[in-house]
Amino acid sequence: xxxxxxxxxxxxxxxxxxxxxxxxxxxxxxxxxxxxxxxxxxxxxxxxxxxxxxxxxxxxxxxxxxxxxxxxxxxxxxxxxxxxxxxxxxxxxxxxxxxxxxxxxxxxxxxxxxxxxxxxxxxxxxxxxxxxxxx
Length: 135
Prior knowledge:
mainly alpha
């Protein structure tokens, strides 16, 4: 499996969950979890989709184990962080460790992504396969 495919699929799941969560908040009139909803949409939808685009543009990196590790860590970190932030903002202090651990996981994933990008760009690898057949 490729990192871009996992990124795109997870991003779509996250945006659907985020939209449903937003509708639930609107219907109930309780917007206390809005910061968690925003984190889920930004980290889960926007960031993952952007990772997917980058990886799709760099096919050699897209198939690399480190890219899959980065995406997997981001997905798990996003879920843990969103749950923690949601708990904190709805009055449950027990969510603070989850928010902290999730934040550290997302940071570690971003540092790995930064390392992959800088390494890839410095190596001057082609951004797309010139020998790939047209579809």
